[in-house]
UniProtKB/TrEMBL annotation:
Exonuclease domain boundaries: 28-89
Signal sequence, renumbered to the chain: none
Organism field: Bos mutus
GO molecular function, one term: nucleic acid binding
Pfam families named among the record's database cross-references: RNase_T
Protein's name according to its UniProt entry: Exonuclease domain-containing protein
Lineage start: Eukaryota, Metazoa, Chordata, Craniata, Vertebrata
InterPro entries assigned: 3-5_Exoribonuclease, Ribonucl_H, RNaseH-like_sf, RNaseH_sf
């Protein structure tokens, strides 16, 4: 590996397809960066949750937290607080034996 390069070993997670497909390319364009290949596939947390729990979380993170018996923390739509909620949902699903897998198709 060359200096300045990182070795990618995971898959990104987003709360929803709409969030990922709309926000990521726009942010990359704003910074003048291409969308890296490893960002072209991801885990849609709503879809993963619905596979694990058998129901679609209509209200996103709020419903997923409630369905898992978790307390929603922070302010909705606040970047770092949403990240904490996403991580907590993922951890809870994994602890219950659900294996999180890529749910998207590359765009």
């Amino acid at each position: 590996m060359l200096p300045g390069q990182c070795q990618y070993w995971g898959v990104p997670v987003a709360d929803s397809f709409k969030q990922w497909i709309n926000l990521l390319p726009g942010q990359c364009q704003y910074w003048g960066l291409p969308v890296a290949d490893y960002f072209k596939q991801w885990i849609n947390l709503k879809k993963a949750y619905s596979f694990a729990m058998g129901c679609w979380p209509k209200n996103g993170l709020l419903d997923m937290n409630k369905g898992l018996g978790l307390q929603y923390t922070g302010r909705p739509h606040s970047g770092i607080e949403d990240c904490r909620n996403v991580a907590n949902i993922m951890k809870t699903l994994a602890c219950r034996g659900f294996i999180l897998k890529q749910t998207s198709k590359p765009f």
